[in-house]
Amino acid sequence: MIVRIMGEGQVRLADSQLPRLNELDDELLAAIHASDEAAFRTTLGVLLDAVRELGEPLPDDSLEPSELILPSHEASLEEVKAMLRDDGLIPG
Q: Which part of the chain is the PspA-associated domain (predicted)?
């Protein structure tokens, strides 16, 4: 799966990494629904760090379509809330 972090670039993630990312996505969704800014900020950072650590960065000149787009670390709770689908940011 190709994942783009807005403002940073793309990484390739193995499908086997999705369960861990879905756990973090569930935590992020709970923080958003609770309007808990501190938990939201922490969990978003942990989620993005996990994507960076688990993924293989693609070259900057790569033009592969992203299957998943994640917000930047600076995104507000409201901006991320607008990006959500029924199951969060990450499908599954």
A: 1-92
Q: Which helix (H) or strand (E) holds 29?
A: helix 18-33
Beta bridge partners of 88: 85
* Distance of alpha carbon 72 from alpha carbon 22, whole angstroms: 18
Structure tokens at 36: 């808990």
Beta bridge partners of 2: 12
The answer to whether 25 touches 90, Cβ cutoff 8 Å, is: yes
The model's pTM is 0.91
Digit-coded pLDDT (tens) for 28-50: 999 999 999 999 999 999 999 99
**Cβ-based neighbours of 15, under 8 Å, separated by 6 or more:** 1
